[in-house]
Amino acid sequence: MGMIISIINQKGGVAKSTVAINLASVFAQYSKVAILDTDVQGSLTQVVEDNENLHIIQVNNLTELKTLDYQVIVVDTPPYLSNQLPQLISISDFIIVPTKAGVLDSLALKATVALIKSSIGALPVKWGVLFTMVNTSSKVIDEIKVFLEQMEVPIMKSIVTQRVSYVRSIIDGGILKSNDLKAKSEIILLAEEIVNELEN
C-alpha cells in the first residue's frame, strides 16, 4: 500500500499542478510513483505522458488507490470543491494545501480548511498549508502565518518561491531537470518534510 499525497485547494492559480509534478519527480528518484489527475482539464496528464519515470493513472473509485502497486501516489485536484474530496481526504496520508502568501488567498482557504477538518475527523491524516509563489523580499508571509495559526491551521516549514524555473518545469518534465539549484532544494526539502511528518 503506497503513500497517498493529495494536493487540495478550491482556488486556482496556486501552483497545485506545479507542486504535484515536481514532488512526484523527487519521489520517482527512488520509488515507483504515479500521479492521479482529477482535474477535468487534464493538463497534468498531457505533461506527464512525456516523463518515463512518472505514470498517470485513472481509477473508477478512489478506494482503489490503496490497492495499486505504487510506493507513492500524488493526487492533483481541480480548483473547486468537488464531491470526491471528502473521500480523497479520508484515504490520504498527507494533504498539501498550496496557497499564495496573500490576504485574499488566505481568506479563500476557509472552505478548504473546513472541508479537510470535517473529513479527517479522528483519522490519522496529516496535512499542512504550503506557501507557493513566495516573494522572498515581502514580509506579508509573517502576517499570513499569524492569521492561519489563529485558524488552527498547520503550516509547512517548506516554501516554494516565485521562480521562472517552476513555470518551465511543467514543460521540461520537472524541476530536477533544471539548473536552478535553489528550486531543486525547495522541492527536495518539501518531500523530506512530508516523509518526516509521516514517520513521526
Sheet of most strands? 7 strands, parallel
On the 0 to 100 scale, the average pLDDT is: 88
Number of strands: 7
Order of helices and strands: EHEHEEHEHHEHEHH
The CATH first-level class comes to Alpha Beta
What does the overall shape look like? globular
Indicate the proportion of strand residues. Answer: 15-25%
The poorly predicted ranges are none
What is the CATH superfamily?
A: P-loop containing nucleotide triphosphate hydrolases
According to CATH, the fold-level topology is Rossmann fold
Describe the structure.
The mean pLDDT is 88. The protein has 8 helices and 7 strands. The protein has one domain: Rossmann fold. The protein has a 7-stranded parallel sheet with strand order 3-2-4-1-5-6-7, sandwiched between helices. It is of the alpha/beta class. The two termini are 18 Å apart. Helix 2 links the parallel strand 2 and strand 3.
Tell me briefly what this model is.
Helices cover 40% and strands 21% of the residues. The protein is an alpha/beta fold. Helix 6 (140-150) links the parallel strand 6 (126-134) and strand 7 (155-161).
Key features?
200 residues; Rossmann fold; seven-stranded parallel β-sheet; 8 helices; 7 strands; 21% strand
List the helices and strands and how they pair.
Layout: E1 3-7, H1 16-27, E2 33-37, H2 43-48, E3 54-57, E4 72-76, H3 85-91, E5 94-100, H4 103-107, H5 109-120, E6 126-134, H6 140-150, E7 155-161, H7 164-172, H8 181-199
Parallel strand pairs: 1-4, 1-5, 2-3, 2-4, 5-6, 6-7
Helix pairs in contact: 1-7, 1-8, 3-5
